[in-house]
Amino acid sequence: MKKRDLNQINEKIDNGEANIYTAEEFKKLIKENNAPSFEEVDVVTTGTCGVMSGTAAILNFIVSEPGEFIRAENVYLNGVPAYAGPCPNEWLGEVDVILHGTAHSITDKNYGGGFLLKEIMEGKSIDVRVESVDGKIIENTITRDDINRAQIIGSRMAFKNYTAFTNPGSDAVSSIFAARPLEGNLSGLTFSGCGDLNPLQNDIPHNVIKTGKKVLLNDAEAFILGDGTRSNPQKPNLMLSGDLIQMDPYYFGGFKTGEGGEIFNTVAIPIPVLTEEIYNNLLIQDKDVIIPVADIKGRHLPLTETNYNELWGDYDLRPQYSSSKCVECDVCEVEKICPTNAFSQKRLDLSRCFGCGMCANFCTHDAFNMNTGNVDLRINDEDVNIPIICRQSDRLRANKLSLKLKKKIKSGEFKL
Ligand code: SF4
Ligand code: SF4
């Protein structure tokens, strides 16, 4: 079997001779029957971006002068509850907290940990309220500069196995899988997953994706701590950790769903092509990646299946907004449901857009132009064609981070 070792690849990188492809570039060449051979590829940078509910942050910051309170009992950041501790920081005037990316504000369930962490990294001012064990209330504001330490831990990230959902019933169903209830009679489909770009999809036996390996998490160097929660060989995911303060807020943030705010992240992982087996695993394409389609109400009972080529196809990754078509409805449905608040006050901020497609599917007057596609399925012995109304993964961000990783490897900034 053909082989090379990491030193050989690193030497080529140092000499500026390494052949590094993003997964998107590599798959495009495969589709064109022009795939580089084992000898012609040294590293492929893979990536994924999507809602990753198991995200938490450990934060440490000062809220008062020392001696003002014994220790925190309850802590709220912009109204989002965080768990005080584990360190009690007795009489120090500072707190350690664990904040869940899925925690919701006590006043607005659509605002939560994901939005808050993004705002911290955007340098915004954050309201802090501490209720201490000795009955004191300390209110203050902090910014990113006041945070001494901020570490993200993702307990289940970069999963490769998802299920797409539709609603065969008659009544609309609210869920975390779309920002508005999913209408019945198979009228729409929602899905997650970046298909053949996903790191674990490109290294199914975990030949290189292992505990201790360095990755990019939201554009900061991070590490694989091990398998994620509920990970198993058939449905793997990863536990990752990295320094929030080094992360680029473009790559993560809050994501509204029918059941409140969630959090999305972007992960990129390099696959050095050390063996022919590793190379062969990289040849997987969207059409080979099967995804079950289930009833939104019976999440683990598939109705049928499809593949990621059917779901992503060559469909649009971002919408175009035409203000001339907007009729200024009394209540803008798009502002209500846009998961990342990219559409606000009749302005589309593409730097916040996730490409989910909800605007194009639910604007009442077609002010958005975006083809998110339809999928042909056979359900209950009938052929049906279902529009894709919501995507909870973002291939554009996954591709962008994979490209950044490629450039960082080439420049020597990211060592393999
Ligand atoms: S729903 Fe569409 S047409 Fe109505 S205000 Fe919103 S963007 Fe404009
Ligand atoms: S595609 Fe539309 S609804 Fe989705 S994030 Fe972008 S602007 Fe918001």
Can you tell me about this structure?
InterPro entries: 4Fe4S_Fe-S-bd, HcyBio, Methan_mark_16. Pfam families: HcyBio. Residues 317-343, 344-373 form the 4Fe-4S ferredoxin-type domain. This is Methanogenesis marker 16 metalloprotein. Strands 1, 2, 3, 4, 5, 6, 7, 8, 9, 12, 13, 14, 15 and 16 form a 14-stranded mixed beta sheet that branches. A 6-stranded mixed beta sheet has the order 18-17-10-11-24-23. A two-stranded antiparallel ribbon has the order 19-22. The protein has a domain at 55-153. The protein starts with 5 loop residues before the first helix and ends in a 5-residue tail after the last helix. It is globular, with a radius of gyration of 23 Å. With 416 residues, the chain is an alpha+beta fold. The longest helix is centred in the C-terminal third of the chain and has 17 residues, at 395-411. It is built from 8 helices and 24 strands. It has helices at residues 6-14, 23-31, 113-121, 276-281, 308-312, 333-337, 358-362, 395-411, and strands at 20-22, 43-51, 55-62, 72-77, 80-84, 94-100, 126-132, 137-142, 147-157, 164-166, 189-191, 214-217, 220-227, 238-243, 253-257, 260-272, 290-295, 302-307, 320-321, 343-344, 347-348, 368-369, 374-379, 382-391. Bound molecules: iron/sulfur cluster (2 copies). One iron/sulfur cluster binds next to α7.
Offer a few descriptive terms.
14-stranded mixed beta sheet, 416 residues, binds iron/sulfur cluster, 16% helix, alpha+beta
Task: Please give the structural blueprint.
Elements: H1 6-14, E1 20-22, H2 23-31, E2 43-51, E3 55-62, E4 72-77, E5 80-84, E6 94-100, H3 113-121, E7 126-132, E8 137-142, E9 147-157, E10 164-166, E11 189-191, E12 214-217, E13 220-227, E14 238-243, E15 253-257, E16 260-272, H4 276-281, E17 290-295, E18 302-307, H5 308-312, E19 320-321, H6 333-337, E20 343-344, E21 347-348, H7 358-362, E22 368-369, E23 374-379, E24 382-391, H8 395-411
Parallel strand pairs: 1-2, 10-17, 11-24
Antiparallel strand pairs: 2-16, 3-6, 3-9, 4-5, 4-7, 5-6, 7-8, 9-14, 10-11, 12-13, 12-16, 13-14, 15-16, 17-18, 19-22, 20-21, 23-24
The structure holds iron/sulfur cluster (2 copies).
One iron/sulfur cluster binds at residues 319, 338-340, 342-343, 348, 353-359.
Pfam family, one: HcyBio
InterPro entries: 4Fe4S_Fe-S-bd, HcyBio, Methan_mark_16
Domain 4Fe-4S ferredoxin-type: 317-343, 344-373
